[in-house]
Design brief:
Layout lengths: L1 H6 L27 H16 L7 H22 L12 H11 L2 H12 L11 H18 L16 H10 L1 H9 L15 H21 L11 H7 L12 H4 L11 H15 L42 E12 L14 E6 L8 E4 L9 E9 L4 E9 L7 E10 H5 L5 E6 L4 E7 L3 E3 L1 E11 L8 H6 L5 E11 L5 E15 L2 E2 L11 E5 L3 E4 L2 E3 L4 E8 L7 E5 L3 E7 L8 E7 L7 E5 L8 E3 L5 E3 L17 E6 L8 E7 L4 E4 L5 H19 L25 E3 L20 H5 L23 H5 L5
Antiparallel strand pairs: 1-4, 1-8, 1-9, 2-3, 2-5, 4-27, 5-6, 7-8, 10-11, 10-26, 11-12, 12-13, 12-14, 14-17, 15-16, 17-18, 18-19, 19-20, 21-24, 22-23, 24-25, 25-26
Helix pairs in contact: 2-9, 3-4, 3-7, 9-10, 9-12
Protein name: GRPD C-terminal domain-containing protein
Pfam families: GRDP-like, GRDP_C
C-alpha cells in the first residue's frame, strides 16, 4: 500500500495512461469477498425489500431498528471468531436495516468500533441452499439467547409498544432516516442485465479501476469522486470487509448513494478516469445516476426482471432480447491537425441488421481531442447484430450525396467477449478514435401485432379457388375472419380466427348464413400458415386459446369467457366517448381481483415527452377515478396483476385493442392478452355499429419491408441528441402507435380502409355485419 500511497502525489502532467485490464489487486487492495456473488446476493435482497411493502411501514422499521441494535448486533459480535463472521443470516427486517447501515461505510465502521471494538463483517452466504440453512441456524441461536423475543418482526401499527418504539426512534434517528431513504434504491439497480455474470465481472474490473483512481489521486482532487451505477453495485458488498480498513479515509472521498451531486464532482471524476485509462467514464449500463443529479433522464423503455417466462409453452413464440449500447468518439491527440480536406467529413452510425433507415450523422468538427463525446445511446435488440461507423465526405454539387472514406463495425458478439464489455477502433487514418460499450442481452417484453388476412373456412383453410381445386371441388363450409400475429421480427407466431357464418361455398355459388352473436367464437392457433400457393394456405391445427361470447349480466353490455380461466365484462356508459368504457376481469373459479384492466397508458407505461432543451417530463397521469382520457390514450389498456408480493399491482402488459398491438412481460400469457384485444374490439364494434378497428378488411395489407423500419429493433435514449430523435421508429411504439404500426399502403392511418374491394369469394360486408353491426 505504501507504494500506492506514494504514487498519489505523482504529477498529473506526467501521468501515463493505464489499461483497465492491467490494474491488479496489488495496486489497489486485495479483497477476500467474492464480489460478483455478493453483488448478486445484494440485488436479490434489494428486490425482495422493494416487493415487501410491510417492511417499509414506520412501526415495522422502528421495531426492526430496535431488533438490529439490541438483539442482532450483540449476538453476531459474540458469535464472531476473530475477524470471521459466523455463517448465520438474520430475519429479513434485520438484514434490511443491516444492509442500509453498511451503505454508509464510514458511519458503520465507527458504530462497530465504538460499540464492539471491532468491525462486524458479513458472512459470505451467496447461494439459496446456504441461505436457508443459515437462516434456520440463526433462528436456533436467536431463540436460545432471546427466548422472549420473536425471530420474526411481529410489530403492527396498533401495537401497544409504540411508546417504547418512539424512544428507539429518538436514539436511532439517523439510522431510521438512512433506512427510509433506501426504500426505492432497487429502482436504480432493477435493470435485468445487472444480475448477469458477464455484466458483474466487467463491473468488478471497473471497480478496481475506481479504487486505483481513488487511492492515487483523491488526495489532490478538490472534490469527491462519483461512482457510476455499475461500480456502486460492486462497492456495496465491500464496505463491510476488514480488508478495506486501511482505505477508510479514501472511502470517505466517495459520493454517497443519495447525496446531492455537484457538477464539479461529475466532471472531476470523468477527467481523472479519462486521464488514467484514456476511456470514457460513462458506458452502457454504467451511467451516473444519483439523487441530486439534475441531469438524470429516465430510460424510455419499461424493461423489468421477470422470474419466469410463461410463454415458453408456445414453440412458435421466440423471446426478444434487448441490450443497452453507447458509442463515444474522440479525435487522436497524437496526430497532426486534420488536413483541410477532412474538416468537412462527418461520422455516420448505422445498425448492421434491421432498421436500415436509421442514420445518425455527426460532423467530425463537433469532436475534440480533449474529451470523449457521446455519439449515441441506444437500446438495441440482440438480433440487430451490431453497429457500423462510417466516415463520409460530402459530395459536391446541389445533390446531397456523400462518399464513403472509411468504416468499422462493432459486433455484439465481439463486445461480449471484450474486457469491461468495451472495444475501441480507429477510423480515417487513425484521426478518429471510437469506443463502443454494451450490456449483456437480457430478455425483454414481447411485441406482437395483428395484421389482416384472408377469410378461412371451418377447417382453417383460406376460402379460395386454389383450396377448392385441391379438395376436388368439395364445398368449403363456414366463414371465419382471420388475423395473423407477427412478433417483433415480423415472424408469424399465431393465427387468430373469428367465426362469423356457417353454410358453404363452392364455385359459382355462395350460400353462407350469419351465425348468432353467441356463436361467434374467437380462437387462437399456434404457429404459422402452411402455404400451398402464394399467399393461400391453411391455419395451424393446434388451438391454444378461445373466447366465447355469452349473455352479459345486468348493467353490462358484453361478456366473454376465456379458455385461460378469466371472464371479461364490458360496459359503455356513453356511445359518444371512449371514456365511458368500463372493464372488469374476474377469475371464473375465484372472486379475488387478481388481474385488472386500466384505461390508458398507466404506471410504467406513462408517455414521456422530450422538451426542446432535451429534458424529459412526464405527461399527466390518468388515474382510475379520472375519466378524462388523452386522445393519445384512446384504445390503450394497461393490464395489472396483483400478488402477495405485489399487493399494489404490477403492470404486465400494454394493449391497444383498436390497433391490435400488445407489449407484454414474459410472465404474462400472450394468448390471454391477444384474446383480450380481439374480444374488446369485437364488442365495441358491435356497440358502436361501426367498423372501429378495420375488422371488415379481409385481405393482406402490404407491410413495411422487414429491416427497413422495424418497430422495436432500436430505441434511442432521450439523452442522445440527434436530429432523428423525432422519428417515431426510434421511440417506444406506444408514444406514437399509429405512425409506427401503420401498414405501408400509402397512408399514415393504420385503420384506414383500403380502396381495393374484398374478393366476392370471401363474401360481402353484409355477411360480416349481420349480427354484429346491425
Amino acid at each position: 500500500m505504501s507504494a500506492t500511497r506514494n504514487g498519489s502525489h505523482e504529477s498529473s502532467d506526467v501521468l501515463s495512461t493505464r489499461s483497465l485490464s492491467e490494474i491488479s489487486e496489488v495496486e489497489t487492495v486485495r479483497l477476500s469477498v467474492d464480489l460478483v456473488s455478493a453483488a448478486r446476493k445484494n440485488l436479490g435482497l434489494l428486490r425482495t425489500a422493494s416487493e415487501s411493502p410491510w417492511l417499509h411501514e414506520r412501526a415495522t422499521l422502528l421495531e426492526a431498528i430496535r431488533r438490529y441494535d439490541e438483539l442482532w448486533m450483540p449476538l453476531i459480535s459474540d458469535l464472531m471468531e476473530g475477524s470471521s463472521p459466523p455463517m448465520v443470516l438474520p430475519p429479513l427486517d434485520v438484514e434490511w436495516v443491516w444492509f442500509c447501515h453498511t451503505l454508509n461505510p464510514v458511519s458503520y465502521r465507527k458504530y462497530c468500533e465504538k460499540r464492539f471494538s471491532k468491525l462486524i463483517g458479513k458472512p459470505a452466504i451467496f447461494y439459496e441452499e446456504n441461505e436457508e440453512y443459515s437462516l434456520m441456524r440463526c433462528e436456533e441461536l436467536w431463540m436460545k439467547r432471546y427466548p422472549n423475543e420473536s425471530f420474526e418482526n411481529e410489530i403492527g401499527i396498533n401495537s401497544s409498544n409504540l411508546q417504547d418504539l418512539h424512544v428507539v426512534h429518538d436514539h436511532h434517528e439517523d439510522l431510521l432516516s438512512e433506512v427510509e431513504k433506501q426504500r426505492h434504491v432497487y429502482s436504480k439497480f432493477s435493470w435485468p442485465y445487472m444480475s448477469d455474470i458477464v455484466y458483474l465481472i466487467a463491473a468488478r474490473q471497473r471497480y478496481k479501476g475506481f479504487l486505483y483512481v481513488l487511492q492515487r489521486f483523491a488526495d489532490g482532487c478538490p472534490s469527491r469522486l462519483l461512482p457510476s451505477l455499475d461500480i456502486l453495485l460492486i462497492v456495496i458488498p465491500t464496505v463491510y470487509d476488514e480488508d478495506l480498513k486501511e482505505m477508510e479515509g479514501d472511502m470517505g472521498k466517495m459520493v454517497g448513494l443519495w447525496e446531492t451531486v455537484r457538477s464539479i464532482e461529475v466532471e472531476e471524476t470523468k477527467k481523472l478516469w479519462e486521464r488514467t485509462f484514456d476511456q470514457s467514464y460513462v458506458k452502457a449500463g454504467g451511467v451516473i445516476e444519483f439523487g441530486g443529479a439534475a441531469s438524470v433522464v429516465k430510460p424510455p423503455v419499461y424493461w423489468e426482471v421477470s422470474d419466469r417466462d410463461v410463454n415458453t409453452k408456445y414453440k412458435s413464440l421466440l423471446p426478444r432480447f434487448l441490450q443497452e449500447a453507447c458509442v463515444f468518439v474522440r479525435l487522436n491527440s497524437r496526430m497532426k491537425p486534420m488536413q483541410q480536406e477532412r474538416r468537412h467529413n462527418f461520422l455516420r452510425l448505422q445498425i448492421v441488421r434491421c432498421h436500415r433507415e436509421l442514420k445518425i450523422d455527426k460532423p467530425i468538427s463537433s469532436f475534440s481531442a480533449d474529451t470523449w463525446k457521446k455519439v449515441t445511446h441506444l437500446y438495441c435488440e440482440f438480433g440487430t447484430k451490431g453497429l457500423m461507423l462510417e466516415v463520409r465526405k460530402h459530395g459536391g454539387g446541389c445533390f446531397k450525396t456523400s462518399k464513403l472514406e472509411d468504416s468499422k463495425t462493432f459486433l455484439w458478439n465481439d463486445l461480449l467477449r471484450a474486457p469491461s464489455l468495451t472495444l475501441e477502433t480507429h477510423l480515417d487514418d487513425k484521426q478518429v478514435r471510437a469506443v463502443a460499450s454494451i450490456t449483456p442481452p437480457a430478455q425483454a417484453p414481447y411485441l406482437l401485432k395483428c395484421v389482416p388476412d384472408k377469410v378461412t373456412d371451418d377447417s382453417g383453410a383460406m376460402v379460395s379457388d386454389v383450396i377448392l381445386r385441391m379438395n376436388n371441388y368439395k364445398p368449403q363450409e363456414g366463414r371465419w375472419l382471420s388475423r395473423t400475429i407477427l412478433d417483433h421480427a415480423g415472424r408469424e407466431c399465431f393465427v387468430v380466427r373469428m367465426r362469423v357464418a356457417g353454410g358453404f361455398w363452392r364455385r359459382g355459388g355462395e350460400t353462407p348464413s350469419a351465425v348468432k352473436w353467441e356463436d361467434r367464437i374467437i380462437e387462437i392457433r399456434e404457429g404459422s400458415w402452411s402455404y400451398v400457393a402464394g399467399s393461400i394456405g391453411r391455419a395451424p391445427e393446434k388451438i391454444v386459446g378461445t373466447a366465447t361470447p355469452r349473455e352479459p349480466p345486468e348493467h353490462w353490455q358484453a361478456a366473454w369467457c376465456f379458455s385461460t380461466g378469466e371472464e371479461l365484462l364490458i360496459s359503455w356508459e356513453s356511445s359518444t366517448s371512449m371514456s365511458g368504457l368500463n372493464f372488469r376481469l374476474r377469475n371464473q373459479t375465484s372472486s379475488d381481483p387478481l388481474v385488472k384492466l386500466l384505461r390508458g397508458k398507466k404506471m410504467q407505461y406513462r408517455a414521456r415527452k422530450i422538451s426542446s432543451k432535451g429534458k424529459e417530463h412526464e405527461k399527466r397521469e390518468n388515474t382510475e377515478e379520472n375519466d378524462e382520457e388523452d386522445e393519445d390514450d384512446e384504445g390503450f389498456l394497461t393490464l395489472v396483476r396483483f400478488t402477495e408480493d405485489n399487493p399494489t399491482g404490477r403492470p404486465t402488459a400494454l394493449l391497444n385493442w383498436k390497433l391490435l398491438i400488445v407489449e407484454l412481460l414474459p410472465e404474462e400469457d400472450a394468448v390471454f392478452a391477444l384474446l383480450l384485444c380481439i374480444s374488446i374490439l369485437r364488442s365495441i364494434s358491435e356497440m358502436r355499429k361501426e367498423d372501429v378497428g378495420s375488422l371488415l378488411i379481409r385481405r393482406r395489407l402490404k407491410e413495411a419491408k422487414l429491416g427497413a423500419r422495424d418497430w422495436g429493433s432500436v430505441i434511442l435514449h432521450p439523452s442522445s441528441s440527434s436530429s432523428t430523435i423525432s422519428s417515431p421508429y426510434l421511440q417506444p411504439w406506444y408514444w406514437n402507435a399509429r405512425s409506427v404500426i401503420a401498414p405501408d399502403h400509402g397512408g399514415d392511418d393504420a385503420t384506414k380502409q383500403p380502396a381495393v374491394n374484398n374478393s366476392p369469394v370471401e363474401g360481402g360486408d353484409k355477411l360480416y355485419k349481420k349480427g354484429i353491426m346491425t
